[in-house]
Amino acid sequence: MGFKELGINAMPLPGAMPAFRASIDAGELRALCEKSRSQKARLVALWGSDEIPRGGGYALHLALAAPSGLLWLTVPLAREQARYPGIADIYSSADRMQRAAYDLFGIYALDNHDRRKWLRHGAWPSDVFPLRKEFNIATRSAAKEDQYPFIKVEGEGVHEIPVGPVHAGTIEPGHFRFSIVGEKILRLEERLGYKHKGIEKRFETMTLEEGARLAGRISGDSTVAYAWAYAMAVEGITGGIEPPRRALALRGILLELERIANHLGDLGYLGNDVGLSFGFFQFWRLKEDLLRLNARLFGHRYLMDLIVPGGVARDLSLPDADLLLNQLEKIRVDVATLKSIYDEHAGAQDRFIMTGKVSSELAEKMGLTGFAGRASGIFRDLRIDYSIPPYQELGVQLASHTRGDVAARVSVRFDELAESIRLIHTLVRQLPSGEIRAPLAEAASGAAGIGWVEGWRGEILIALEAGEDNSVHRCHAHDPSWQNWPVLQHAVIGNIVPDFPLINKSFNLSYSGHDL
Amino acid sequence: MYQLLKQIAKTGIKTEAAPRTDETLRLLQQRLQEGILNYLGRALAIRHVDAGSCNGCELEIHATNSPYYNLERLGIKFVASPRHADMLLVTGPVSRHMETALKRTYQATPDPKLVVAIGDCGCNGGIFGENYASCGSVANVIPVDVAVPGCPPSPLAIMQGILTAISK
């Protein structure tokens, strides 16, 4: 069995990604996390569950990524003593996840230095835990005044700028508390959770198949990645059925199209944010061309609901594939021109270089993920590290940089855009013939599945457990923004306030994917 | 600089015609007098409020400013404060954690004002519906003049909703 490197016996989970599952006692948790940290295994996610209807208590779950695959650890917790030793000092990204697990399940991390609520604002009281099974999804608690103690920075000339939840631009809601002196940012503290809309509880009212539509709406800009991760988890749960090769190649095409569209949009806004509105108009023209083609070829501009458990919902004909390649070639040529314009634009480069810097040490320590991690010397990409079809034979080239500033994130985005176009060319040329959807088997109650996909922003995880009659017992969706939001607080230190929108956009993190 | 100018010249003008209005999107009778409408039609200021969306609708609102749609050429622009706005463009099922912020934003918008709800979730709560953390549709929280369905609605549909709200 797997995970000898951590000295535990884990059972392999059926499914596309190498994933294993093990159960440990709370007393062993810290030693295991320390060991995994020392062996460079990273924390992907931490969440809770309620096992009382199944005759247990509560449970804490961790997903750790090691070279041999993903380890899903379950720590059973007694109903009366739902506590466990906190691990935020070992994995700093665990801090907010532990606080969220308390808000939703009432499972408590001992010795966590930060005991403030995280996802809970005023919609439910502190002694109510909405993800417990006994809690009815329709229960509306009376709204309470929301109190949240921000950390105060004091000293001569220090003042605060509170921003949000309603922001000045077309941005998702969240609150940023800046402590500044003059124009310089001394500290940024984020407060999220404004978009919490009960997604995980909603999953539990659905069948495994119905859940696919909801998964595609956890974070709209990553709908393909979420839908794929969810489909992968369902395919694992139903005995590890493998979608047809053609469906897997089409999934790869869809995921790379999503990556291209998001990088095009953000590269445009990064130009706009430094006063180069030329960049916004050019990149958004290219993005619109692509979205229109998406609608024509696949029936949806953002490719929603196309990846379904078992395969894909729509095929790509040969003439349509040619249209796609022609359009991508036009985009490739124009992006190359725009890259040289950005590279040679002194004003833009002056704003990009050395702004919002994240060192590789900090990135490693805080678990920075996705393209932002790759711009800070964290050379990880699920498409390469755990290469499964259709990526196996493509030889995905890792885009990377080491400086970790806005310019590095811009550079990685340009490189990934070009690489995604190359990947789609290869996938289309080698598109296998055959079916696009395999029938799903019945899911055994209690069966578990993992979906793990390198979305454009970073790694997206779906950890799914089936209930009776193909229902969802628990679906935990993890967005890479959980890891990256805390790093943004560090990236802005010492920068000036007007550079915050630029730094923020260079990461472009999801609020909805985080708040659930 | 030469390369930049060449690219602008090569690209040319991409802006397309604006959509017609659609009265079936209207939920409330026109609240504004004709004189104000004549005025607003040429200088409408919009404050966007994301009250809990999946961020899909935001992608399409961004796209209304792209060269193909170029909303600003119609005199319609997005502003940074509700105090400068004539219209709120609201997305999402309204999460209960955004309920207060949305109500306060509505109160901060000077009268006369209009509200356009965007997307299936803004119209009826969408796939999220109403639950312990979601109020469902925008109309459950503030008065809505025009509601635009779609998941997400296209940029043209969003423009159509905005134009319908300021039509007689």
Plain-language structure description:
The complex is a heterodimer of chains A (516) and B (168). Chain A is α+β, with helices and mostly antiparallel strands and 516 residues long. In chain A, 38% of the residues lie in helices and 17% in strands. Chain A is built from 16 helices and 15 strands. In chain A, the strands form 5 sheets. A 5-stranded mixed β-sheet of chain A has the order 1-2-5-4-3. In chain A, strands 8-9-10 form a 3-stranded antiparallel β-sheet. Chain A has a 3-stranded antiparallel β-sheet with strand order 13-14-15. In chain A, strand 6 (83-85), helix 2 (94-105) and strand 7 form a beta-alpha-beta unit. Chain B is of the alpha/beta class and 168 residues long. In chain B, helix 3 crosses helix 6. Chains A and B meet through helix 3, helix 7 and helix 8 of A and helix 1, strand 1, helix 3 and helix 4 of B.
Structural class of chain A: alpha+beta
The whole-angstrom Rg of chain A is 22 Å
What's the number of extended β-strand segments of chain A?
Answer: 15
Order of helices and strands of chain B: HHEHEEHEHEH
Beta content of chain B: 5-15%
Helix coverage percent of chain B: 25-40%
